[in-house]
Amino acid sequence: MGQEEKQDAEQQATSDKQQKGKRRIKVDEEEYHSLQDKAKRADALFDQLLRLQAEFENTRKRYLKEKEEYIRFAHGEMVLELLPVYDHFRIALTNLQAMPGEGANHGAMLQGIQMIQNEMWNLLSRNGLSRIETVGLPFNPEQHEALESVEADDSLEGMVIEEIRPGYLLNGKLLRPASVKVAKRKTQET
Fold first, then answer.
1. 169 neighbors 76 (Cβ within 8 angstroms)
2. C-alpha pair distances (Å), 132 with each of 97, 101, 138, 159, 169
3. Residue 102 pLDDT > 80, yes or no?
4. Res 14 pLDDT > 90
5. Domain 130-190 is found in CATH 2.70.70.10
6. Would you say 148 and 181 are in contact if contact means Cβ atoms under 8 Å apart?
7. For the chain, which residues make up each domain, given as ranges?
8. Mean of the pLDDT values across residues 12-31?
9. What is the DSSP string of 98-115?
């Protein structure tokens, strides 16, 4: 057998192997259209399945995100109710420090209130509470509540000059706005 005959035989064997997986069947036109319709329906159902899988995955991700968000802010109401208590400790500590007092009782009371306030702040901050910065910053209506406008130098106009009540964020979201005094331009006397 020559070289050409070997190549022809190899090509024929390869062609036969490829044809074994594919058979030609004769079907009438009606059956052919029915098979085409079924193939289109199968493709449509497969597309629908893919869309439903994607929708399910998106819903699952959204649920997990909402659940995480709920957990982060679920204790927000309790923290909001604790803020006045924390404020009262802060005020008591400030007033006690300003009072002239002598003796072990005054020092012990001051130290005790300071310890309670610090422990309470540590607990609140570990749970996502942070204080809003105010004095010396421009008034921010999203975080500050202006209770009073005070005449000041033009360079201070629109700046927070005093904090009346602190404001807080819980995990980056506003829990309570800070109550502040804001500088305004002096009125010109005529």
1. no
2. 24, 32, 12, 15, 7
3. no
4. no
5. no
6. yes
7. 56-127, 130-190
8. 71
9. HS---SHHHHHHHHHHHH
